[in-house]
Structures are given as structure tokens and as C-alpha cells.
Amino acid sequence: MSPSQWITLGIVIALALSLVFVVHWLLNHQLGRVWPMARHLVSRSAVTAYLAAAVVGANLALPSPADVGWTTYQAIQHLMRILMIGTLTGLGISLAYAATDMILDRLSVSNGDADRRARRYQTQVRLLRRVVTSVIVVLAIAAILFTFPQVQALGAGLLASAGVIGIVAGVAAQSTLANLFAGLQLAFSDSLRIGDVVVVEGEWGRVEELSLVNVTIKIWDERRLVVPVANFTITSFENWTKQGTAITAKVVLPLDWEVPVAELREEAGRLITASPNWDGRSWSCQVVDITEAGDVMVRVVATAADTGAQWNIACEIREHLIAWLVQHYPESLPRNRTEFFSSGEESPYAAQFPTSAFRRGRSSQEPAAAPRNGATGPPGGDPGEV
Which residues form the Mechanosensitive ion channel MscS domain (predicted)? Predict the structure, then answer.
């Protein structure tokens, strides 16, 4: 190429880049005030628009075959065709992302967990644009490959055996396709949404990202749990915000038999009804069980508007009731009782339960003697008693 041709090429590319700069300036300073999508277009196409403009400008200023020779011209033309496909594909994807960004802004979670419909559409839009982008990229790569004559000849043979190739590809990409369809199933069945509070593999967290391959869960301690999408369709998981954000806080206190349940219930009610984390629906304080170890299980329940309030009110109940019991009823705290009797003492329960199980010289939990039919009974046992 002659120096004049290089100068012409540089001028055309500079004009194309200047045109993109002017368009971006107008979108930022003029149209951006009245058109919300303008800033998304500028941010998304900040690189791809300039690359596409440079390639288009270079393609317009290509030299003729007489200037560089037919072989060189074919090589340059082939290279420019590949660059055109790649840059225009990138520009198209960035423009599509800009359009969906505007939709996602409108669907942004403005009401927290309560905005379930917005979070559902947000999840579907994010997943669909990933699917569409993947398809476009695959088609672009195929178009680039078919610019080579060798691949075109191979493609005719591949089309004849498309059935076999399809089976082989399906087997090879089985896990990828399973994740793809699992992601679509989760998004459009409303089983999982971005922002949902879930419990997966014993970890509590919030769905941060739902892609074609994995689901990223932000755990409460800032860790990230990455789970394959297909796992959510074959294993069970807890979704705390599927139907709404209302949830119930539960606090279980193992206490002693001497706990004053009525006073404890009154104090729990006073605390819950005064707490800003209680949503005003319901609360209760009940003895729900007695363990084999002798602990009285008292359960305090209070409803909350969302998971954050649920955690806070549960901690409030636990901390306040522990301090209240320690201060006013320390005998209610859980304890283990052990009672010893010497051989000359009588069990205090013997008068209440006049049976052979409570005899002098035997503890209240010692079983009665067995008949002496060849076996040796405990000392002092009566062979005639059972």
C-alpha cells in the first residue's frame, strides 16, 4: 500500500471513531436527560462500539486488488470479514444487554423481599439474555469458521451425518444441557428467584446470581456458595421467601421443673409486644416437651415481617429471658439432680409410694429383687417378693 492509501485508511477510521464519540456525547449530555436507556447504551458499548467503528472504517477503505495483489487482497478481505463478524456480534450483544439493563432497573427490588413479582421477572430476564447471548456467540463462531473454505467443505459432510453428530454432541454436553434446562425450569416455574432467602446444604443465604451453570448464594457471613443449577431440580431446598416474607421466630429454652411458666409467659409477652421487630400477628410461650434428661422445654414463638426481623427478635427473646430468669428465678435454670441414701435412711418418696420398690437400704431408682430361682438377689431381698 502506498502512503496515500495508509493516510486514507487512517482518516476513514478516525472519522468512524469520531462519529461514535459524537453519538456517545449526545447520549450522555442530551438524550440522557429524557431517555433512560441512553446511559445504559453508553456504558455497555463503551468498547464494542469503537471496535466496530474502526473495523467498519477499515473495511470501507480497503485497497483494490490492483494495488496489493490478488492473494494479499483475499487475505485482507478474509481477515476483515472475520473482524466484522466478531465486532458486530459484540456490539449487538452489548446493545441487547443495554436494553435489558433498563428493564432490570425498572424491576429492581425496591421493596426488599416483599417485591416477589419484580424479583421473578428479574431472574427470568437475566437468564434469558444469557441464553440468547450464548446462542448468538455460537452462531458467530460458526459463521467465522465457515469463512474458511476447508470448513465449508467439511460442513457439507457433517450435514449428511447430522444425526450421528447430534447424538454424540448430546451425550458429550449432557451435563451442560441439563444445567441449561434446569435453569430455565427454575426461572419460569418460580421455584427460585434472585434475592430469595434459601437454606441449601445447611447454609443460610440469599440467591445472588442465577446463571446457566451455577447458582451463587451469598451466605450471611459474606461467603459464596456455588451450587450447580441441576441440583435444585433433583434435591430439596428451603425457600423462605417463595410465597412471602412473613416468617416466625422460634426460641426453645431448656429449663428446670421449678420454672414459673405463667410469669415467664407474661414477661415474654411484654417483651415481644414492645419489640419493633414483631409484626403484630401472633406470639406464644408454651411448654412443648420434657426430655429424658429432665429438662422442661419452653418454646417462645413470635412472628416477624422478614428474615432480618425474625433473627433480631429471636436474639432479643433469648437474651432478655435468660437475663430475667437469672435475676428473678435462678432456680429455673437447667440442672441435674443426684440424691444419695445411706443404708440407714429412708427414701423421702417411700411414704408416697408404699411399694416394695422403696424399702430401707435401697435408692428410689433401684429395682426390686428378683425371685431366688438359682440367681443371687441383692442383699436384704425377700425371695417371696417380686
Answer: 176-242
Q: With a cut of 80, say whether residue 212 has pLDDT above it.
A: no
Closest listed residue to residue 264, CA positions, set 322, 335, 224: 322
- The pLDDT of residue 248: 92
Asked if 137 and 92 touch (Cβ cutoff 8 Å), the reply is no
Question: What are the tens digits of pLDDT across the range 126-164?
Answer: 888 888 888 888 888 888 888 887 766 665 555 454 454
pLDDT in tens, 86-130: 999 999 899 888 888 887 777 765 555 556 677 777 887 888 888
Domain ranges within the chain, ordered by starting residue: 3-186, 197-239, 247-332
- CA–centroid distance for 233 within its chain: 14
Which residue in 316, 197, 189, 195 sits closest to 246, CA to CA? Answer: 197
Closest CA to 215 of 231, 236, 199, 191: 231
| Structure-block grid coordinates of residue 256 | 428446670
CA 102, 109, 207 angle in degrees (round to 5)? 105
Decide if domain 247-332 falls under CATH 3.30.70.100: yes
Whether the pTM exceeds 0.90: the reply is no
Q: 345 burial class (0-12, 13-18, 19+ CB within 10 angstroms)?
A: exposed
Outline where the chain has alpha helix (H): 3-29, 37-44, 48-60, 65-68, 70-106, 116-145, 149-160, 162-172, 174-188, 231-234, 261-274, 307-328
Q: Which amino acid is at 296?
A: V
CATH architecture assignment, domain 197-239? Roll (2.30)
